[in-house]
Design a protein that fits this description.
This protein has 542 residues and is an alpha+beta fold. The strands form seven sheets. A seven-stranded mixed sheet has the order 3-9-10-16-13-12-11, with helices on both faces. Helix 2 crosses helix 16. It starts with a helix and ends with a strand. It binds glycyl-adenosine-5'-phosphate. The site of glycyl-adenosine-5'-phosphate (GAP) has 19 residues, from strand 10, strand 13, strand 16 and helix 16.
């Protein structure tokens, strides 16, 4: 699995994703999509919309406002209960999700360095002496407050302290961290958690923190309406249920899909774009007859699981996880997460919940407007049940990026290649002139670029040698390069053959095709038909 640092660095270098407000020191909780990133994320969103809205008879779209009436958030339960427990470090002041503190320790710089050291020869010889030496050297930089709290002498009794270490999978480290905690606490055996940032053993008792981001509508604060930036798109859908029903004349079962920005005052944003305070969601509220909800829920679980794989996520990196009874939201009948194996471990990509009739009932009660459906067959009013496949556009984009990342050796050199599915690749085609000083080649290549652009996002590049240009396109996942050379346009020795070379990113194989059939061949290639095209036109490999 690729390291997240490599992904972050590639994203910055090649213009996928930049840190927000970087020239001011950056904002850790927000990211900006650069020239390639915006194309890439737009492709993910476009495919989600196409597959879930345009290709279905039972779905319509909606784009609700981000700011809504404050009562919406009372009715939905967000004002009272949308919070996470947090704990703060008394030494460095950092805050963490209390329920994720062990993951935070696990992924902290000091703990990772410690793990690395433990794999080395010194630790194999005498583990505790190696730890002690490490604490006196590298740890001083990485976990300064752990050091300040440590006992002056190497302790002799290192038995497990009964440290409650849920979430860690490896017993060895569990034991080890427990011991560290006891060292850090200078013999205080009730002290159980070390700060992921500084190593101090001064984490506070967990308390709830609201995730709602307040905002004020109106020029004068005293009279302004206090509301919230929406924490999910779903409520905009529920409050519009009757509007959409009346306007679209849909019959159950039917869904309303929505994509858009949501905001949460996350305690610990992090892991690149995985958890941010501003993010985009792609949510479906699918309304069904009560009694058919369980079957529809399962259908959506299967469908959404297959969707990610259709666009390239490898089977071994994706799984479904059923929520335990005690982690279900109080209104949910059942919830299943689609999880992806991100560099920091298995994490939620999408949640698919059976929300029963909770939301429509709540909004009916708080607004006084009945949000019901008239069942013609049984001549009765009812409140539909809701199945909600709720995905994140940023998380999906990140998963597609991580999954596509490959490093390999070609002719003794490292090749970084993003093996994107053609439909999500930001750039579909790169047109490359073999000689940039040869006018006829450049003219033809530019004309070709303009023609291809009408159907596929195509770039022209002549700023390096052909080998380098190929590598550049590999690194941003462009599935096909089209090269225009002397043979294409002819010279004094030979007439033009009016053919170009198409080079496939994944196999690096090349085919030679007539300019007149380029568009037809490209259309085939975008469907993933390389093998067939290579059989008919194949010439060589780069
Ligand atoms: N309406 C239901 C709902 O919002 P959720 O599981 O809280 O459910 C749905 O959010 C999806 O939105 C998540 O699976 C994730 O992909 C995305 N998401 C949620 N919080 C996020 C955050 N802080 N940063 C990035 N994506 C987030």
């Amino acid at each position: 699995m690729v390291d997240m640092d490599k992904i972050v660095s590639l994203c910055k270098r090649r213009g996928f994703i930049f840190q927000s407000s970087e020239i001011y020191g950056g904002l850790g909780s927000a990211w900006d999509y650069g020239p390639l990133g915006v194309e890439f994320k737009n492709n993910v969103k476009r495919l989600w919309w196409r597959d879930n809205v345009h290709l279905r008879d039972d779905m319509v779209g909606l784009d609700a406002a981000i700011t809504m009436h404050p009562k919406v958030w009372e009715a939905s339960g967000h004002v009272a209960g949308f919070s996470d427990p947090f704990t703060g470090c008394g030494a460095c002041g950092r805050h963490y999700r209390a329920d994720q503190i062990f993951d935070a320790i696990w992924n902290s710089r000091w703990f990772r360095a410690l793990n690395k050291m433990l794999e080395g020869p010194a630790a194999k010889k005498d583990e505790w002496r190696a730890i002690w030496n490490w604490a006196d050297s590298e740890a001083k930089k990485l976990a300064p407050n752990f050091l300040a709290a440590r006992s002056p002498n190497m302790p002799t009794n290192m038995e497990v302290t009964g440290f409650p270490f849920e979430g860690a999978e490896d017993g060895r480290y569990k034991r080890f961290l427990a011991n560290l905690a006891s060292v850090g606490a200078k013999g205080n055996r009730t002290m159980d958690v070390l700060c992921p940032n500084c190593g101090a053993a001064q984490m506070s008792e967990p308390r709830p923190a609201s995730l709602m981001l307040e905002t004020f509508l109106g020029p004068v604060r005293e009279t302004a309406i206090k509301t919230y930036l929406r924490p999910e798109t779903a409520q905009g859908t529920f409050v519009n249920f009757d509007n959409v029903l009346q306007a679209s004349r849909k019959k159950l079962p039917f869904g309303i899909a929505q994509m858009g920005k949501s905001f949460r005052n996350e305690i610990t944003p992090g892991n690149f774009t995985f958890r941010t305070r501003e993010f985009e969601q792609m949510e479906i509220e699918f309304f069904v007859m009560p009694g058919t909800d369980e079957e529809w829920h399962q259908r959506w679980i299967d469908e959404r699981f297959a969707w990610y794989q259709k666009y390239g996520i490898r089977q071994e990196n994706i799984r479904l996880r059923e929520h335990e009874k005690d982690e279900l939201a109080f209104y949910a009948k059942r919830c299943v997460d689609v999880e992806y194996l991100f560099p920091m471990g298995w994490s939620e990509l999408e949640g698919i919940a059976n929300r029963a009739d909770y939301d429509l009932k709540q909004h009916s009660q708080y607004s006084g407007k009945a949000l019901e459906y008239f069942d013609e067959e049984n001549k009765q009013k009812l409140i539909p049940y809701v199945i909600e496949p709720a995905a994140g556009a940023d998380r999906s984009t990140l998963a597609f990026l991580v999954d596509a990342y490959h490093e390999e050796e070609v002719k003794g050199e490292k090749r970084v290649v993003l093996r994107f599915h053609p439909e999500i690749a930001p750039t579909k085609i790169a047109v490359l002139p073999l000689l940039k000083k040869y006018d006829r080649i450049v003219e033809t290549a530019k004309r070709l670029t303009a023609d291809l652009r009408k159907r596929w996002f195509t770039v022209y590049d002549d700023t390096a040698s052909i080998g380098r240009l190929y590598r550049r396109q590999d690194e941003v996942g462009t599935p096909y390069c089209v090269t225009v050379d002397v043979q294409t346009v002819g010279d004094e020795k030979a007439p033009a053959d009016d053919q170009v070379t198409i080079r496939d990113r994944d196999t690096m194989q090349q085919v030679r095709v007539a300019l007149s059939s380029l568009e037809t061949v490209m259309a085939k290639l975008m469907e993933g038909e390389w093998t067939e095209v290579y059989r008919d036109h194949g010439v060589s490999k780069e």
